[in-house]
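This protein record is not my work; I was only asked to verify it. The record follows directly below this note.
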Amino acid sequence: MKTSKIYKALSIVLLIIAVFAVVCGITVTGSGFLDLSNIVRGGCYCIATILAILSWVFYKKAKQKR
């Protein structure tokens, strides 16, 4: 299997996980004594940003001609 196809597949998988992390960040709710939902929301958004950047890098790497 060519490396460009592997990079494209990896970029698609990372993008799907990033979208899932954004959805998790939007839907997280909390209440009570130790409400850590804001920390979890920030963590989900950070993870989604990192995964989206990695997805873009792998997609660009797949497009390079050798």
